C-alpha cells in the first residue's frame, strides 16, 4: 500500500520542520504529516492522506492526529495496536494479549483514560493548592526576612546610642556587640535566602508539573496519557517551612535588656555620661498603626503561680485566670499577693512589646505593667497595680458599667 501511495503525484504540501511528524510515504524531502493511521501504522501528509482515504474508501481506518509515537502504541509481541488496559498488571495490551490476561481486570484504553482523567483533575487541584500555599509561605518568609533586618538595624542603632556615650574602657564591648548583631543578621538572612531559593524552585517545579498535566489532559493519545500519567501524578518533593528559622537566634529585645543591665552596673562611675543620655531624645521607630504591624512585637506570657492571690484560679498551663470565692491550696510564698487579687507573669519585657488578651465578666479587669520590686504583702497602695510608682494599670469594664481609669 505504501508503494502505491509513493507512485502517486504529490500535490502542494508543507515540508516537515524541526519537531514535526514526517510523512512515512514521501520520498526524498519529507513533508509534514497531518494524520496517523492506527490500522496502517503510518503517518501521512495532506496529499498522501487524501490518497489513503481514496484507496481505503468504505473501510474503517482509525485516524488520529499525527504522532511520532506509533511504535510505542504497538504491541511488541503481536505488532497489534495497544487498545486494552490491564488493571491487574497496570499496562496497555493488544487484543491478542487477552489470552494471557484472561483472568485479569481489563478495560478499554478509553475507559481507563476516563477514570484517570478524573484523577488528573484531582492531582491538578492539589498542585494548584500547593502553589497557592507556597506563594503564601514565600511572601510570609520575605516579610519575616525584612522584619529581621529591621530588628537587627534597630538593635545596632540602640547599641550605638548607648555605647558611644560610655567611656573608652567599654569600646571593645561595643564592637563585640555590633559584630554579634551583624553575624546574627547574616546568619538569619543566609538561612532565609536558602529557603527562599528552595521555595521558588518548588513553585517553578509545581508550575511545570501543572503545565505538563494540563498538556497531557488534552492529548488524544490514550496510550501516551496512561504511560505518562503515573510519573506526572507523583507529587514533587516538598520544602519544609514549619521550622522557625530565627528561633535559635538571640532576640533584639534580649540584647537590649543586656545592654541596659550593663549600663546600670556602670552607673556609679559614669553618672555624667548617663545623664547626657537621659537628656537626649531617644531613638524611636515608626509607630505601628495596624494590628499586623503591632504583631511584629507580640509576646506570649504565662502566669507565675507563686505570685497568684489565693482567690485566683490558674488553668490551661497558667494562661487563664479565673476569679473564685474558693481559696486555692497554694503554698505560702514571699512573692505571692495576699491583699489584692493580682498575679504577675513569669516573663519580663524590655523595649517595645505588644500582647493581646480576652476577658469576660460583670465587674471588669485591670491590665497592668509592673516592676518586679512591687510590694506583695498587705492591702496598701504600695501593693495595688496602678496605685504607686512601681506599676501602671488600665481598667477595662463592661459597656453597661461605670468606667474609671487608674494611672
TrEMBL record:
Gene Ontology molecular function: any one: zinc ion binding
Keyword entries, A-Z: Coiled coil, Metal-binding, Zinc, Zinc-finger
InterPro entries: B30.2/SPRY, B30.2/SPRY_sf, ConA-like_dom_sf, E3_ubiq-ligase_TRIM/RNF, PRY, TRIM8/14/16/25/29/45/65_CC, Znf_B-box
Phosphoprotein is among the record's keywords: no
UniProt GO cellular component terms: cytoplasm
Domain B box-type: 70-109
Coiled coil: 117-216
Pfam family, one: zf-B_box
PROSITE patterns, per the entry: B302_SPRY, ZF_BBOX
Domain of life: Eukaryota
Protein's UniProt keywords contain Zinc: yes
Listed transmembrane segments: none
Domain annotation B30.2/SPRY: ranges: 281-407
Matches recorded under PANTHER family: B-BOX DOMAIN CONTAINING, E3 UBIQUITIN_ISG15 LIGASE TRIM25-RELATED
The protein's name: Uncharacterized protein
